[in-house]
Amino acid sequence: ATSSQQEVAYVLLKALGGEESTDFEFPLLTRDGQTRSLLMNATALRGNNDEVTGVIGVGHDVSEIRQMAAEQKNIADDLAWFVKKANAPIFGVNRLGLITEWNDMAATILGYPKDDVLGKPFVKSFIRADVQDEVGRVISDACQGKETQHFECPLINRDNKEVLVLLNAASRIDASGKIVGMVGVGQDITNLRQSMTEQNLIADDLRRIIENANAPILAIDTEGCVTEWNLKVAAVSGYSKAEMLGKSLLETFIHKEYRKEVGRILALGLQGQETDNYE
């Protein structure tokens, strides 16, 4: 006999012994070979002398409910797998700020496995002291239904180095619709931010070189208006950078008889064609 047959036989024997059973699941095999799930109550039938003469079962068909539950479990399992394996750090906290979710990517970029962080206070454990209040407000807002997008969240990894995550903080809602915490989905932008900082430093160096070069340097936009005017060209022309920015180079500083030729040279430059040693 199968385990289901043994369980049903046990319930029936209990009922024949006068002991009722409630809400036991009865797998019923139909004519076409399918199994229906019945939720049953088994009660003893008694004769005139109160002797047990049989068993009566009363129940309802819960096959569709069981199928829906199985489908929902499959969906939940798929989502759990997606969260675990997503190529982005994902973490969750409850309303007390304690960690309830920590996916593989979060573990990778921060160096802490999930089992080591569950139940720990997220802010105090992984956020720099000077920004703990700000991050705490973002989490608190999410726990009250106010979501935050594209928030730069500086995390501290196991090596005590900062990992910058661009974070979307959303409310975490249970099956009843109640907000139970926050879930954060992020993107590690540490290398990107470092690259941008280095590029900005290079750009600042170039601006200083241009500004202090021992040669007149000027630039215009596509409308012919001045966008750069270094110290040397200011000394030569007698016009400061503040006076020049935004003004038309041709109309303001080029003699009428030369404007056409200079305009042609500038137009070539705006088209990517260089002109060397032009007076």
UniProtKB/TrEMBL annotation:
Stated name of the protein: histidine kinase
InterPro entries in the cross-refs: PAC, PAS, PAS-assoc_C, PAS-like_dom_sf, PAS_fold, Phytochrome, Sensor_kinase/Photoreceptor
Keywords, in A-Z order: Kinase, Phosphoprotein, Receptor, Transferase
GO MF entries: protein histidine kinase activity
Listed Pfam families: PAS, PAS_9
Enzyme class: transferase
CDD domains: PAS (cd00130)
A Gene Ontology biological process term: detection of visible light
Domain PAC: 22-74, 149-201
Entry-linked NCBIfam families: sensory_box (TIGR00229)
Enzymatic reactions: ATP + protein L-histidine = ADP + protein N-phospho-L-histidine
Kinase among keywords: yes
Stored SUPFAM superfamilies: PYP-like sensor domain (PAS domain)
Top-level taxon: Eukaryota
The protein's Enzyme Commission number: 2.7.13.3
PAS domain boundaries: 75-146, 202-273
